[in-house]
User: Fold these one by one.
Assistant:
Number 1:
Amino acid sequence: MTAIGLTTTQAPFIEEVRGRGEIYIRQPYELYSEENQETWRRLYARIRPRWEKFAHPKFMEGVQNLALDPHNVPHLDDINKFLQPLSNFRAKAVSGYVPAYVFFECLKNREFPTTITIRAGDSLDYLPEPDIFHDVAGHVPMHTDRRFADVLVRFGEVAELVAEMAQGIKDEHERMRRLDSILKGMARFFWFTVEFGLMNTPQGVRVYGSGLLSSYGEIAHVLESPEVQRYPFQLEWVVNQYFEIHHYQPLVYIVDGFEHLYDEVARLEAWIKDGKLDNLSPGEPSVSEADLSSFLEAKKDHPVGA
């Protein structure tokens, strides 16, 4: 029998809305089971001391400014009441996977697609897909900082440029080849910054990437293990560096601050315009047909030059 509640991969509510093709949904808070709530409590309680030791100070400010509840799964409406006045961002509930262009368009519009399910209580360290702890506890506190929020908006604007450029390429094979390479580079950039980025601070190197901030084990490993390579951010390395998602990262990059990060997104845009992402190193991540299609469909009603 299917479990009742909002457990990742086991929630009938999610199956129903996905079956109807719905991406943007309400957060049916009444469906969270006591097990779901207990899972949140356990995840929060064990990672909080590691945030205090390893997280960027702006992240900790964000946790405080959001009044993030250690005892209950957050109501997204409550999160947004604190978040929107700070950066004009808001968490937007989704049913799961969001096609790449749609995701970046949300960022451009200062909306963060937010998963509402939570991982199973017997699998605290395993995520078959993002959950609300990763999205709200890992991502959203950083969104309270306007400079970081502006980085996300800038990334969404870059995605819009890529969709427009793709429409301007007449040869279909060449359009698909170049788009695949560019999206691979964008995914790598996003991975090594927003998800797994480190930043210099007066207190030393600290974590600002959400994939690290939501991982009890890796947030310590990335800063303390001699097995991890930590290098200053170099765009030419990042866009050509493949990554894999099923193990701790052996290589991470350090930016000097939020202004540096914003400037690197601007450089990424300039490189895309100059064709420097058209022939990147192959390898992970693979770009799905759905993600490619989301960019190709995005500007059909507004072709370049119209």
Number 2:
Amino acid sequence: MRSFYSTLTAVLCLAAALAIAACTSTDKQQADEVNDSTTPLHLLKPDYKVPYGELSADEVKADLEHIFAYIDSELKPNILNKDGKAILDTEQLTPLPEGATIQRGAFRIGSYEWGITYQALLAAKESTGDARYEEYVDRAMGTLRCAYPLFKQRDAAKTEVEDAQMEQVIHPRALDDCGTMCTAMMKYAKAYPDACQEGKIGSKGIVVSIDTLINNYFQFVEHGQYRLEDGLFARHRPQHNTVWLDDMYMGIPTIAYAGIYFNAPKYFDEAATMYKNFVKRMWVPEKRIYRHGYVEGLAQQPTYHWARANGWALLTTVELLDMLPENHPDREFILNQLREHVAGLCALQSSEGFWHQLLDRTDSYLETSATAIYCYAIAHSIRKGWLEGITYGGVAQLAWHAISTKITDEGKVAGTCVGTGMAFDPAFYYYRPVSAAAAHGYGPVIWAAAEMINLLCEWYPRTNDSGLHYYEQEQKNPSPLFYLTEDGKGEAVR
């Protein structure tokens, strides 16, 4: 009997212990449970696909330096002999040896993509004070100024220059060959006039004045490129009298900056008139974005909203506002067009900060170069007072966060659509390849970085209740949720 009671007692104790343990476990589970009573749910960290939140100018500078290290290693402008040896600044320059070529790396020294990159590097020098960015441009410009007379003289009796890169420089045949390069050279010469005069390299080589190249380029922009009856740039491809949105940027800023460079106001008027004629044909007001192509005379226009072409249009708008006099009669029209276009683009920005290859088609891929152009243009417009920083600062910064995820360990820019012509069906745009070798991504990303550095030196991004906001005054309250006060110290929400 005693054994029975002992066993019963043991069983009851064990049951009691298990019950207590179960209650303790339930109490602990309830205590650990995340719910509205135990946790400020609005402060839970979201699972963003790209970085989100505060950003410093130093972080952007680090990305900029990373990209620059890559392009500097890949393209060191020089003239090479037929054995591939550099001959710039040597006795071998005059006469130019047979088989000599412009040195190539991953990029082309005189391409329109690199014309944009030169302008971006000049902006990077201004935003960071780092002379290496200007020295890169100086080296490239010096090489071209030395090569120009040498190749022109050597190939004078031929219909084409032997080196394909110098053929584009000496005999431009399209705006792609000369527009952005001409603008870059004018900006460079305006900023560094003493470095651009005719002179000597070594004991025999001659460096021509940069004006020799500028005038050659500008002659084609102003008189060589085919135009419609009202003076608008056009091409006979893929159809007769096709207007490309790309050509807004390939030519209009060149004409506008000529007004500054040559002190000739007539070019301001020409650039503004051409801008309005582009808008008349290419702008789609119900979507507040541009079509890529237009064929003069068609009643039903092909309408595909390619992202990078819209970037060229936006960049043209920003450049014109920088270049035109404040009292120019068309300035208000251009400013209004900027605001309308940015509003249309912001409505189409993806949750990851990028824009789509076809802007209004969310099943098309996310593209880097267009995102970078929009980032630059919006950030620059905020700084100039053309756009409200409170409204658009977060848009530009989200775009930069997205771009930063496409900078590879080697400093390459990934996710960029390769060179793109025009077609009148969606498949063409959907399936354009992307490549980190596409030069189109580097100038826009460098320009975006330079302008984000400037913006972050003037505005103060800060998260408040988990959302990123741009403030004109630094907010010092450490609370994740705070009211604003006049002294910037803020008041924590309790």
Number 3:
Amino acid sequence: MKHLIATFLALVCLNSCIPAQSSFGDQLADSALTLTEESVVYDPSYFRIAYPNGDVPVGKGVCTDVVIRAYRKMGVDLQKEVHEDMVANFHVYPKKWGLSKTDTNIDHRRVPNLMTFFERKGRVKMISENGADYLPGDIVCWSLGGAITHIGLVVDLRSADDERFLVVHNIGGGQVIADCLFDYKIIGHYSYDKD
């Protein structure tokens, strides 16, 4: 009996000493944080890029490229995923650009297309004014006014008042960490884990 109890206690200790693997969202948030170490100039130019796994030139990018690059570090190619869904379901994607077919160079780099993709393939989460509802790895989309949209990733760093997590985004100053969750009107809140 003593041997059985000792074995049980050893197993409990072993299990509590092994660090839990972090969730996909935590890992995605970490990937986004590493992007802030890279110097990137905001450049909304249209680029011809490879397919699949294409990327705009190093040192350039916009808000969507933050999300694309963070997912790429996780082994998820949003260029390919969005393209394949658009080919199969072109009619459900926005028609704001007058296109009659897909374009692997730009489709995944447009916020409204990413919103449609995440609504279809990810998990739509509640939009609220409560910072606790936005977790590391969550994708947040905003309206900046007019037809201008923006996107960023929630990361595991807290605001100075400890009320919310911070965001990695690129709104013109490169890939940066900012306390901007409620600075703009939130129009989308998602999580997406391909597996």
